[in-house]
Write a structure and sequence with these properties.
alpha+beta; 7 helices; Ribosomal Protein L22, Chain A; binds coenzyme A; 2 domains; three-stranded antiparallel sheet
C-alpha cells in the first residue's frame, strides 16, 4: 500500500489476521495481550462473527500504526496498552497519553480485504474510507449523490469513489452518517470541488474552517479514499 506523506499515516490489517485471531479466541485463547480490558469488554459484546472480525481488524491496523508512531518518538508500548475506543458518536480514539500533545487523530474503515487505519498527530485530522467497488441501486445513488454530482457518475468505480470520498470527509468531521449525505458535495463529482452544507458546514466552521483535501486510491476491486486537514499532501 502506498505510504502517505508525513505527518499522515496509514496501515492495513489484512482480513486473515483478524480472522485467525478471532478463531484462536473461539478456541479459548485469551486476547489480553492484544486488547485492553475495555476493548475486551467491547469485543465480548459483539455477537455477529463478521462484525467481530471487522472490529478486531480495525484494532490490529490502528495498533500497528500507533506502535510505529510511538517507536518514532523513542517510546515503546505493547498492543494491549493502546486502547482504541469509540466516542458516543462512534468515532474512534486512542486512550493513551501521547506526551506533550493530544493523541493522534484516528480513523478506521473495514473493507472486504481487511481494515485500514489512518492517523495524524499534531492537532490535524484525517478520515479514511474503503469500500468494495459495486454498482449501487438507483434509489441509493439518489440518497447519497446530490443532483449536481450525478452526471459525473458513469461507472461503479465512480459511484464507489464518490461514496468513499463523502464518508472520509464525514469521518474527519466525526459526523459519520448522522448527516444528510448531500451536505458533503463534490461538484460534478470532482474531488477538487468540495462544498459543505448544513450540519457538515456548521461542524467544519466550529473547527475553525481548516482546509480539507481529499484523494482516492482506486484498485480493481476496492476504492480507498482519504480526507485530510492541513497543508500537505
Ligand atoms: C461512520 C460510518 C459512516 C461508517 O460506516 P461504514 O462504511 O459502514 O463503516 P466503515 O467500516 O467504513 O467505518 C467504520 C468505522 O468508522 C468509525 N466511525 C463510526 N462512527 C464515526 C463517526 N461519527 N466519526 C468518525 N468515525 C466514525 C468507527 O471507527 C468504525 O469502526 P469501529 O466501530 O470498528 O471502531 C457509520 O458507521 C456511521 O455513521 N456511524 C455513526 C453511527 C453509529 O454507529 N453510532 C454509534 C453509536 S454507539
Amino acid at each position: 500500500m502506498r505510504e502517505l506523506p508525513a505527518p499522515y499515516r496509514l496501515a492495513r490489517s489484512p482480513a486473515h489476521e483478524a480472522a485467525s485471531l478471532a478463531e484462536r479466541h473461539e478456541a479459548g485463547e485469551c486476547l489480553s495481550h492484544t486488547l485492553s480490558p475495555d476493548e475486551l469488554a467491547q469485543f465480548k459484546k459483539l455477537k455477529v462473527p463478521k462484525r467481530r472480525r471487522d472490529w478486531l481488524a480495525g484494532r490490529l491496523a490502528a495498533k500497528k500504526l500507533l506502535l510505529e508512531m510511538l517507536a518514532e518518538r523513542g517510546r515503546e508500548a505493547r498492543p494491549h496498552e493502546l486502547p482504541i475506543l469509540n466516542r458516543k458518536d462512534g468515532a474512534p480514539y486512542l486512550a493513551f497519553p501521547w506526551e506533550g500533545e493530544p493523541a493522534p487523530f484516528l480513523s478506521l474503515s473495514h473493507a472486504p480485504s481487511g481494515a485500514v487505519a489512518a492517523a495524524v498527530a499534531g492537532g490535524r485530522r484525517i478520515g479514511v474510507d474503503a469500500e468494495a467497488v459495486a454498482e449501487r441501486p438507483e434509489a441509493f445513488v439518489t440518497v447519497f449523490a446530490h443532483p449536481s454530482e450525478r452526471a459525473g457518475l458513469r461507472s461503479a468505480h465512480d459511484q464507489t469513489r464518490l461514496w468513499t470520498l463523502k464518508e472520509s470527509v464525514l469521518k474527519l468531521l466525526c459526523l459519520g452518517l448522522s448527516v444528510d449525505l448531500w451536505d458533503v458535495r463534490f461538484l460534478e463529482a470532482d474531488p477538487q470541488r468540495l462544498e459543505l452544507h448544513g450540519r457538515a458546514l456548521a461542524c467544519w466552521e466550529s473547527l475553525g474552517r481548516p482546509a480539507i483535501r481529499v484523494e482516492s486510491r482506486p484498485s480493481e476491486h476496492e476504492v480507498l479514499s482519504l480526507a485530510y486537514t492541513g497543508e500537505t499532501p
